[in-house]
Design brief:
Layout: H1 2-7, E1 11-15, H2 19-22, E2 34-38, H3 51-59, E3 62-67, E4 70-76, E5 80-84, H4 113-123, H5 128-138, H6 153-162, H7 165-172, H8 174-179, E6 181-182, H9 183-188, H10 196-204, E7 207-213, E8 222-228, H11 230-255, E9 259-260, E10 269-270
Protein name: NrS-1 polymerase-like helicase domain-containing protein
Domain NrS-1 polymerase-like helicase: 6-99
Organism: Streblomastix strix
């Protein structure tokens, strides 16, 4: 709210329906430098959420504005989005998506009413906005590279939930896909929830298709291979490492389980 007050009419605060941004009628984004999306549901529960349309709002320079009974028009896109939610995954973030900075707030002051009273009193001081504006104007960000967005644990968690069946396939068979995996073998292991056509189409966006001689073959017959695109190798290696760390932690917790006898009727207690 404080940031929106600084922006005045060039901001929109407390937008609770994401369809106002990504839907057919999107006049709310016109000439807005800051838009606050508040209390969004998990993306799996939002039928109206168009993740690709949300990406467009973040990256394109111009937006097509549509209002009821008014001719459509083009408008310069200057919108910056802040998304606030108590839900676990309000937006879908793919493994290779670098558009989002995700932060998780601490619960340290959750019931500390005195702490928030002090903040509220500071905001209501007469010179608060003047001092805040001066702070932002004098803040030196010349050396900052805004294209390098920090990776956080909260973002990794959302990326894990957002993974598609094809991305899970790539992580599982990462070693083979880095070297080149036979197309027939890939089809044998394809996710059950995808048809062959869907699997091939989605894998094409992640892997390059190559044809080369079959190994240990005397004939000149060439067979097809899927090979992970070089620019995506590092992203999927990071995801693979994350999964390995989680599995190692789970195994360690399991081996540290102590079984103590239960004097009462029934089975032993796992502590």
């Amino acid at each position: 709210d404080v940031l929106c007050d600084l922006m005045a009419e060039y901001s929109a605060k407390n937008i609770t329906d994401i369809e106002e941004i990504t839907g057919n009628f999107n006049a709310v984004i016109e000439n807005k430098s800051l838009i606050i999306l508040n209390e969004l549901k998990n993306f799996t529960e939002q039928r109206a959420l168009n993740s690709n349309a949300l990406k467009s709002v973040m990256i394109v320079d111009a937006q097509r504005i549509n209002e009821t009974f008014i001719a459509r028009r083009d408008s310069q896109n200057v919108a910056n989005l802040i998304i606030i939610s108590n839900n676990f995954c309000p937006v879908k973030i793919e493994a290779t998506d670098r558009r989002y900075l995700v932060c998780q707030t601490s619960y340290v002051h959750r019931h500390n009413f005195e702490h928030f009273d002090k903040i509220h009193q500071a905001i209501n001081q007469a010179d608060f906005y003047d001092n805040l504006y001066t702070f932002f104007m004098k803040r030196d960000i010349f050396q900052a590279n805004l294209q390098v967005i920090p990776m956080t644990d909260a973002k990794k968690d959302i990326q894990k939930v957002s993974k598609s069946p094809v991305e899970n396939f790539v992580v599982k068979y990462l070693k083979q896909l880095k070297q080149g995996m036979e197309c027939n073998q890939a089809l044998d292991y394809k996710p059950k929830e995808l048809t062959e056509f869907q699997f091939k189409a989605q894998l094409k966006a992640i892997c390059d298709y190559e044809r080369k001689n079959a190994p240990n073959s005397k004939c000149m017959k060439k067979i097809g291979y899927y090979k992970l695109k070089p620019g995506l190798v590092q992203d999927y290696e990071s995801i693979k490492d994350e999964e390995n760390e989680i599995n190692d932690d789970d195994e360690e917790d399991y081996t540290n389980i102590k079984i103590i006898p239960n004097n009462q009727d029934g089975d032993v207690i796992n502590q």
